[in-house]
Design goal:
about 400 residues; alpha+beta; twelve-stranded antiparallel beta barrel; 9 helices
Amino acid sequence: MLGMRLLANSQTLDTSKLKLNLLRAPSSPAANLLGFAVSDIEKPSDVSDFMFTLQSATGTNSLFPTNYAVDLAPFWIFRSGSLTTDKFASRKFNDVFKQSFVVSTAIRNADTSNADYDSRNLYQSMGIKFSIIRGSLSKKTIALLESIHELQSEIASGINQAIAEKLESDSNYQSLKRSRQVKLAEKMDPDHAEVVAISQKMEKRLEKIKATIVKTYTEELASLQKQAAAFKIERFGFFMDFAGGMSLEYIDRTFNKSSVYNAGVWLNFGANYQNGFSLMGITRFFQNPDKVFTESNGTYNSANISTLDAGARIVYDHPGSGFSLSTEAIYRSVLTNNTIDPSWRWVLNADYDIGNNQRLTLLFGRAFNGTTTSDGNVIAALNFLKGIGNNR
């Protein structure tokens, strides 16, 4: 009912949500399942509502992205209202789980550079991720967050007060308001065409007044948004994340001809320190059904192969800048006898925040051994991550 909605909202401007720069590190379990995550051992971060990853790998002979990942955070998408600082800082499992839960999907267009993937086929994965334990917000973060919210409230209060005063003194709006009140006093239904027509005129007049007043606060609003965009959320202390999922292989890129490529679960854990360093580890289990491998005599065979990964990563985030550097190493042991040999992965990762919830990552290293060759693969890729929906 337009008339009732107008009366409820006629003198308020919604400035309760502010866009924050939340994106700190890729958080895509689906990309991890398909082997194109920039890091297998992910640093925890506060998620955006919607995140997508584009990756261009040097082995594809193409400048266009070849691998894609999309991640959704249901709590942030479907929540109503803003979140209090106490809830955002909370370390209770219920709050941590809801705020960190991510649903993920990814597509990998295989090429001949990696023996683990058949270039004739297409791969899709689905995964989830959430935090079990997360670090505490730093005192600096809490102080800055409260300062931003206080300034935000002052601006909103000033705008809304100015709108209310202008409405009281605006003859056109008051004339329409009186006409509407007369119609309603005559027992006319609020949804009657005449009442709705008056309500629509009132709403148009209100929007015009709002737009005029908001323009007078352009500098204040721009300054507030600039502070929010530059604001970095810092959490320090111990953390633990759970992730898992499954991927499918589409034979000859045909969707009605598919099979399970792999499935896995893993734990990321570690600690973030105020000097910019983070130390992290991973424990991960993968099940690979009908995996093709090479026998010692050179013949091909297939089996259900189970692997267990264990590794560590060290990250340095330069304080006060958007640059970070990290290196990780993971050892893969094979739980299924007489199949493939154990292998390892090493990656050097340089990451830069280019602003507005966008990050650019360059990685280089050695991948796990391919299943049909004893030689490791070199990883060299450029990764772009974008986060959308960061109003808090």
